[in-house]
Design brief:
The complex is a heterodimer of chains A (about 325) and B (about 450). Chain A contains 14 helices and two strands, in the order αααααααββααααααα. By secondary structure, chain A is mainly alpha-helical. Helices cover about 55% and strands about 10% of the residues of chain B. Chain B has helices at about 5-10, 15-30, 165-195, 205-220, 225-250, 255-280, 305-325, 325-335, 340-345, 350-375, 380-395, 400-420, 430-440; strands at about 50-55, 65-70, 75-80, 85-90, 95-100, 110, 115-120, 125-130, 135, 295, 300. Classes of the chains: A mainly alpha (about 325), B alpha+beta (about 450).
């Protein structure tokens, strides 16, 4: 019985973890790219990296304050989106895919450079305590620990309630923004581009400009995802590589592209299902047959397989509507 | 414009996906005993002292499979560096030890910058480390037994990042080698893209599969030629099977290209972790013997590298001639131009695409075998790491043109190896990707592509 109780508790733990929120944020951004506008962005991890390092480097190396660092982060994401968008948004969808994935990799290689050791920390990244203080000192919460639903965290500290409140607050904010934007005339143009770009152009709208705006907006959300991801832990270039992007795709497709709550549902499900599978395997399959490392690898195999099955059999995901889905290249 | 309606029209659900995965699993389970290799680990405690270090090549990549020995205090151990270039010895007595690197196990073109053996003092419950910096500039190396000759001793102090013509020449030939290896894989990628429109993200894993299979067959047969041939044949068979059970049913189901691309990403993730599951995350070496090197016009490469370059070139020429002059080649090009018209004029499109998959799989497998030999081992991510190079090459040459893929690959290979002279080694792949982005800015259709394909 103990096992099941602990499992329930860790499910709850994972469901409200800042990392889960970070994935939701980045997935909301990806959903604006792919779900609403039909852009094949395969470099969302690049946006997260730009956001995280924009924030971390401004604080740890240039000594900026919290709000200035957030500003730098947003600016960096905007610049990155413009650099990516200008050459590729006029081309067919798979070019954007290849360029975004390439650009994200280039970025990751650059921040990993040993030459930049002093600024970005090289391959080992920036440790959390170098940039976290500017965030924790904003916390209005009193000292001490709080227990809610059996989960105990410090109010303000390393892995704390304050990060969770801010992370999920951001999620709520971005969901609201997405909802408002998508039902606005601007959002309708985006959907129009997804459905039929030529038709939108014939109405006198510049589909190029709208696509670039969408790329920027989703990129900024990705950047916030990166910051939230780095806040409770450390910044590591390799944690924001290709696997991260693929996970985000999995999340968006699972929850349902082109829906408001798809990324939220997808992200929580993604983490919870993985946790349940690995804990069940850890509990009931003897480690002589399958050790932790192998369970982890099999979990990844399962992710790959579910991605295939999802795209083939239920491309609209759980919440999605098949008519609202665009896969046209 | 939209193909979304088409998705719901088809009612026949392909069992293909499940079949392929079953096949994959059966293949692996049947032929390969499970036994993941773990990287060497040593935790210092009251009765253990650790000696460790990381060896990196001059370009900053981990130097893999380098043999080290430790002697002293009754110990005589030998280890090899793992996929991250890490090596570690655990000793049970405190005292002075000598750690030495076996010179013959260094990758070709790499030399010791300082010493090849070091004295270390080891204490129990503690860690000691030893550094073995490498350089690719022979004249700057320790001992300076220069094969290129003609250089004064005064030059031995210059940094590894400086330019010299012999070095340029060495990197140039390495670039040719890299280009030829990339060509093999990107030809397949380009042919598949040309005939089906699919950007196959699992191409890298087809490369890895070739190399890993070669290592497996090498263990069984002990003959490199047989092992390589078998690996290529099985890779080609895997290409065939992939098309039969996965891609063809999905085409019939009228999945859009974007969906197919995501399917290939899923396949790539699945294969990567299956590799890790069965082969472990360490480095797998195909040929465990120390490769012989050969100096030819001042360029030192392993004999295997020269052979690999020759066979690659032959394979590429054969595919090129086949595309130009055979009926099948004409059919392939017809399908690239206009599949519907090709079908209408009596070409069996599915059969041609299937053969393209076989060729693509075989070429990728061959690339994997050679990569494993030339770079002294490969791991589960070798192909995945190069995947973007393949895309860069194909895009640079022009998506869907076979000749373009070849030229693009050679340019990318050169770029990767030559930038290494001036820039830190960590950046060598980054420059190729930057080139890709720049090309798309200036000439999105690539060097040999036609404009209609891009918009």
């Amino acid at each position: 019985m103990d096992f099941w109780f602990e499992l329930l508790q860790s499910i709850l733990q994972v469901a409200i973890a800042p990392t889960t929120a970070a994935f939701v944020l980045a997935a909301i951004g990806l959903n604006i790219h792919f779900g609403f506008t039909g852009l094949m962005n395969m470099g969302q991890a690049g946006f997260m990296l730009v956001g995280a390092y924009g924030f971390g480097v401004s604080v740890s190396y240039f000594g900026l304050g919290f709000w200035a660092a957030i500003g730098v982060s947003i600016a960096a994401a905007v610049v990155f989106a413009i650099i990516l968008g200008i050459p590729t948004l006029k081309l067919r969808g798979d070019y954007l895919a290849i360029v975004t994935i390439a650009a994200a990799e280039v970025l990751r290689m650059v921040v990993k450079l040993a030459v930049l050791q002093d600024i970005t920390g090289g391959p080992s990244g920036i440790p959390g305590q170098k940039y976290r203080p500017v965030f924790t000192e904003l916390s209005p919460l009193p000292e001490g620990k709080t227990t809610i639903l059996g989960l105990t965290y410090a109010n303000t500290g390393v892995d704390d309630w304050w990060t969770r409140i801010v992370a999920w607050g951001l999620v709520a904010l971005f969901l609201l923004i997405t909802w408002l934007l998508i039902r606005s005339p601007w959002g309708r143009v985006l959907k129009g581009i997804r459905e039929d770009e030529d038709a939108v152009r014939s109405l006198g709208k510049s589909s190029y400009a709208y696509k670039l705006q969408a790329l920027i907006l989703g990129g900024i959300m990705g950047a916030f995802g990166g910051i939230v991801m780095a806040l409770p832990a450390a910044m590591q270039p390799d944690s924001m590589g290709r696997p991260m992007t693929f996970n985000l795709w999995m999340i968006v497709l699972l929850g349902g592209a082109a829906t408001i709550f798809g990324p939220l549902l997808g992200s929580i499900l993604f983490f919870v299902v993985r946790l349940v599978l690995t804990s069940l395997a850890g509990e009931f399959i003897p480690s002589s047959l399958l050790n932790t490392q192998q369970t982890e690898q099999l979990a990844w195999v399962l992710i790959g397989l579910s991605l295939i099955l999802l795209v083939v059999f239920r491309p609209q995901g759980i919440l999605g509507n098949k008519k609202e889905l665009s896969f046209n290249v | 414009m939209t193909r979304t309606t088409a998705i719901s029209v088809s009612t026949k659900r392909p069992l293909g996906v499940a079949l392929l995965l079953g096949l994959l699993l059966a293949l692996f389970l049947g032929i390969f005993p499970s036994g993941p290799a773990h990287a060497a680990e040593c935790t210092p405690d009251a009765s253990t002292g650790c000696v460790q270090g990381v060896i990196k090549t001059s370009s900053g990549d981990p130097a893999v499979g380098i043999k080290l020995t430790i002697k002293g205090g009754g110990e005589d151990q030998t280890v090899e560096t793992d996929s991250e270039g890490r090596w570690v010895f655990a000793v049970t007595k405190a005292g002075d030890y000598t750690v030495s690197v076996e010179k013959s196990s260094l990758p070709d073109g790499q030399f010791f910058k300082s010493a090849e053996s070091r004295e270390v003092q080891v204490q129990l419950n503690n860690q000691a480390s030893a550094l073995f910096p490498l350089t690719d500039d022979e004249s700057a190396a320790q001992g300076g037994s220069s094969a290129t000759g003609g250089e004064s001793a005064g030059e031995s102090t210059k940094s590894a990042n400086s330019f010299s013509w012999p070095r340029f020449w060495q990197q140039f030939v390495s670039g040719l080698r890299m280009g030829l290896l990339i060509s093999l894989a990107s030809l397949g990628l380009s042919l598949i893209f040309g005939t089906t429109g699919l950007s196959n993200f699992a191409q890298g894993e087809m490369v890895t599969l070739g190399g890993l299979l070669a290592a497996l067959f090498m263990g069984i047969t002990g003959n490199l030629w047989v092992a390589g041939l078998l690996a290529v044949v099985v890779s080609a068979g895997f290409g065939w099977a992939q098309d039969k059970v996965l891609w063809k049913p999905l085409r019939k189901k009228r999945l859009s290209l974007m969906q197919l691309m995501i399917v290939s990403i899923g396949l790539s993730i699945t294969m990567q972790y299956l590799f890790q599951f069965f082969w472990g995350s360490g480095v797998i070496r195909i040929d465990k013997s120390t490769p012989a090197t050969w100096t030819f016009f001042g360029v030192t490469l392993t004999v295997q590298s020269y052979i690999a370059m020759g066979i690659s070139l032959l394979a590429i020429i054969a595919v090129g001639l086949g595309l130009m002059y055979t009926r099948f080649g004409r059919a392939t090009r017809a399908i690239s131009d206009n599949p519907a018209l090709a079908q209408a004029s009596g070409i069996d499109v599915d059969r041609v695409i299937n053969i393209v998959w076989i060729i693509g799989g075989g070429l990728a497998g061959l690339a994997g075998v050679f990569l494993g030999l030339v770079f002294n081992g490969l791991n589960w991510f070798t192909g995945g790491q190069l995947l973007l190079m393949f895309f860069a090459a194909v895009t640079l040459g022009g998506l869907g043109t076979a000749f373009g893929a070849f030229v693009g690959s050679m340019l990318i290979g050169m770029m990767v190896e030559l930038t290494n002279i001036w820039l830190p080694g960590d950046l060598k792949y980054a420059t190729a990707l930057l080139l890709l982005i720049l090309i798309l800015l200036v000439r999105p259709q690539g060097i040999f592509g036609r404009k209609e394909r891009i918009g």
